[in-house]
């Protein structure tokens, strides 16, 4: 009974892992409509959130280089 239980558990874990690894490939190749419809204007939440999307990044810090305007 113990060996059969281990085989069933291992099979279930392998199936779960395989489905988790296959999901990104399935999602990338699916032909669904885009998440944001380019023919419509952005909702207010997206326009407000845009400038602040990277404010929590503290890994590199500010860029010390000054770039001249072209």
Automatic annotation (TrEMBL):
Region called Disordered, residue ranges: 33-70
PANTHER family given in the database record: OS04G0165500 PROTEIN, OSJNBA0019G23.7 PROTEIN
Name of this protein: Transmembrane protein
